[in-house]
Write a structure and sequence with these properties.
five-stranded mixed β-sheet; about 10% strand; seven-stranded mixed β-sheet; about 650 residues
Length: about 650
């Protein structure tokens, strides 16, 4: 098609574009600007997964950008600052508010210290801003200091007049006692410029103390996407009002002695449940909260928690049994266990084997109708439903997960998802019946996401089935978010024989070590580049046992290394994070984080080991990214508009 024919074909769109670019000069200026952007280095991407409520470790990793800021400070100031001075500068960037408060208590006159800090921060900020256009940096500037910071960042200090001018700016800031606010603004800007895009590859919730704090931080982040994990989908379904998922959320919280997030974080009223549990159940060690190293609770608190745990877990098993009966397509009949209990004999039949039970005091389980809730249990669940669906903070967080999240993402030729793509034993994509439709591979992920959105946003007759599908995604036999044949919560609480606790992983986890399989999986999602990778979370990498997070000759990276303190004795570390910048991919293994208080007081950083496992042959530029593709399409449209102006069509 010749250019005139193309112009006439797109004339309606070109007229709309002309409103933004009303003449040839404005079009030419924008084309030049966009072409220059294409040749800039790509921004740095930061990948984290399996945060599990560990808000302090998450905050620190986010602040130090997985070592990016530490590396920059060491590079820029190795010859001018001692290690202790560099550590103090790092701590200032990570926690400027708290650091300045400590400084004010320690020193009578902080002006000289602040002036030195300002000079160092400006140097660091200039370096961070060098890979972006001035326009993009301006958009990131805090409004109250935007003009001054812009002046300082783009000064030519080799030119005498400019150098003197900018020296006076710094002196004036200090003299006016505005240095503290300016330091906070610069520190915030440095962290924003260090990471262009943040990816959270699932499991923000459960186990750790404050996933709600993590969610607040993510909501404030300038550019984040989330790939849902099974723990996230559980909380999303609970927010939608699904009773079994509400019960499972409470079970997970009380099991780790973490009811604070429900009561204080989200305002969930647990009092009726606690009163019911206290009068109905006796204490059992099997339901005592699982406290991690250094955590303490009183004997009374442990008794109350154990009773709540037992009361809600019995309700959970009843509610799950009802779902399994409603959905024979889930093929989870073997998880119907309440009807296999012989309370008099103190045993339960699992499979074809009879096992002794650790606890048989189940006064609310009617042997003649074991899956039915008692009237009092039904009343408690109605109250919990009301509390969950009317928690404003929880609903805000769940809506953010929907707005910025999904089952998977294709980002700059990388495939991100939390769990697995279910496979049959022979290596084919498994057909899974979810929501009455059999799908596999990418179609399964798309179907699961569509159902999750119906489950929360719909108010029609299809809402219940969609919410049931969300429960299946949490713990189902062939769920891509769970990836195991069963969730053995019942066995772990009631059966002493640990052989019954085993959960067999999907065949996916056998195939991910094969490069050919990973390439086939990437192609399923339309990713055919040599630099494409699969980035997973979900399964902790047991470094202490010699496991590697990099598999299939570098095509797949698992970045769950144990943010959750409960996993750290098994993994040997405290989490993996991934950095993808214009030079390549870098994997960081982090040691356990002590506390924010210690990090501030003693200028401590997380001890991390970084390995560059893939270096790009040519530096990756914006033109090589998803944004670059959008910009190239924009340049084409503008070129067509330019031709239309010259041809007199507009």
């Amino acid at each position: 098609m010749d250019i005139r024919a193309q112009i006439r074909k797109d004339i309606k769109y070109l007229r709309q574009l002309a409103a933004e670019y009303p003449n040839i000069q404005s079009v030419c200026t924008e084309i030049v600007n966009l072409r220059s952007i294409l040749n800039l280095p790509k921004g740095t991407e930061h990948f984290l997964s399996d945060l599990h409520g560990e808000h302090e470790a998450f905050t620190h990793i986010l602040n130090n950008c997985s070592g990016v800021i530490r590396e920059k400070i060491n590079t820029l100031f190795s010859d001018t600052l001692t290690e202790n001075e560099r550590a103090e500068l790092r701590s200032l960037v990570y926690y400027p508010n708290q650091k300045l408060e400590r400084l004010a208590r320690r020193m009578d006159d902080t002006d000289e210290w602040c002036e030195r800090a300002l000079r160092h921060l400006i140097t660091l900020c200039k370096d961070m801003a060098s890979i972006y256009t001035r326009s993009k940096v301006r958009k990131a500037l805090p409004p109250e200091f935007s003009y001054i910071i812009d002046e300082l960042l783009h000064a030519d200090y080799s030119e005498q007049n400019q150098a003197e001018y900018h020296e006076k700016i710094i002196e004036s800031i200090t003299a006016l006692h505005s240095a503290g606010d300016f330091i906070i603004a610069l520190s915030t800007l440095i962290k924003r410029l260090a990471i262009d895009r943040l990816h959270i590859v699932g499991d923000i919730f459960d186990r750790g103390p404050r996933p709600d704090v993590i969610m607040d931080t993510l909501i404030e982040h300038h550019n984040v996407d989330i790939q849902w994990g099974n723990h996230d989908i559980l909380w999303m379904a609970a927010g939608a009002g699904h009773h079994a998922c509400i019960a499972a959320v409470i079970v997970n919280s009380v099991a780790f002695g973490n009811l604070t997030v429900l009561e204080q974080g989200y305002g969930i009223n647990l009092r009726p449940l606690a009163m019911f549990a206290d009068k109905t159940y006796t204490y059992s060690d099997a339901f005592a909260p699982r406290l991690l190293s250094g955590e303490r609770c009183s004997e009374q608190e442990a008794v109350v928690a154990a009773k709540i745990h037992k009361a809600i877990i019995v309700m959970l098993f009843k509610l799950e049994s009802q779902i399994i009966q409603r959905h024979p397509e889930y093929h989870m009949e073997k998880r119907l266990l309440l009807d296999k209990i012989d309370q008099k004999a103190g045993t339960v039949i699992i499979g074809d084997v009879r096992y002794d039970m650790k606890d048989t005091h189940l006064p609310t389980v009617n042997p003649d109708d074991p899956f039915a809730l008692t009237p009092e249990e039904e009343e408690i669940m109605r109250g919990l439903h009301t509390s969950f669906v009317h928690s404003q903070r929880l609903q805000k967080h769940v809506r953010f997960l929907y707005a910025r999240g999904g089952m998977y993402a294709c980002a700059n030729q990388n495939l991100l998802f939390h769990g697995c793509i279910p496979m049959s034993d022979d290596g084919d994509f498994m057909q899974v019946d979810i929501g009455g439709v059999k799908v596999s591979g990418r179609a399964l992920m798309d179907r699961a996401e569509a159902l999750a959105r119906v489950g929360y946003f719909s108010s029609g007759a299809d809402k219940q089935n969609a919410m049931d599908a969300m429960w299946y995604l949490w713990c189902g036999k062939f769920s891509p978010l769970f990836g195991r044949d069963k969730m053995t919560t019942f066995e772990r609480r009631f059966v002493a024989d640990e052989s019954t606790w085993a959960e067999t992983k999907n065949a996916y986890y056998r195939y991910i070590s094969q490069k050919e399989y990973c390439i086939r999986l990437l192609e399923e999602f339309g990713l055919c580049s040599e630099i494409s990778h699969i980035i997973n979370g979900h399964v902790p990498v047991k470094v202490g046992k010699g496991e590697s997070p990099v598999k299939a000759e570098g095509k797949l990276i698992v970045i769950d290394g144990g943010f959750c303190k409960a996993y750290q004795p098994h993994t040997g570390i405290a989490g993996y994070t991934l950095i993808y910048n214009s030079f390549g991919l870098r994997l960081s293994a982090h040691m356990p984080f002590e506390s924010v208080e210690k990090a501030i007081a003693e200028n401590l950083d997380i001890h991390s080991t970084t390995s560059v496992f893939e270096t790009m042959q040519n530096r990756v530029r914006v033109m090589d990214t998803d944004i670059g593709q959008d910009i190239s399409e924009r340049i084409y449209d503008l070129s067509l508009l330019h031709a239309a102006y010259k041809a007199g069509e507009l």
